[in-house]
Specification:
Blueprint lengths: L2 H15 L2 H21 L5 H24 L3 H15 L8 H15 L7 H12 L5 H12 L1
Helix pairs in contact: 1-2, 2-3, 2-4, 3-4, 5-6, 5-7, 6-7
Length: about 150
Amino acid sequence: MSLVDTLNGDLKAAMKARDKQSLSVLRMLKSALMNEKINAGHDLTAEEEVSVLSRELKQRRESLEEFQSANRQDLVDGVKAEITLVESYMPKQLSDEEVKQVVAATIEQVGATGKGDFGKVMGAVMPKLKGQADGKLINQTVKSLLN
């Protein structure tokens, strides 16, 4: 079953439960997936669906940071709930240690020796970890292991 089918089922459940916040987030996720499908001109692959979800999750995390810095607790609570809902559709996230192992193996694989090889390592590791780990975490791990 595709992600859109899952979202449709969850949309119906949210409508029946009169859960306005979940309904709003689910509609937005479905809309983002449909827009991406139209832009791509074909049905989305699982990897493309994860990419869309990752982008939506990143937007919410950035909003959360902004709201926290502005001391807007009313908005922070809502965004945290949205993040939890979007994360429920994401693949299982890797732990810090698992990310470190994948990055270390990739560094060894590409033969990176220092900071100058950062781009080469990131280019090789991002496709491996797409949707499974936060980009900031991957970036920090690569920097720390290259030093």
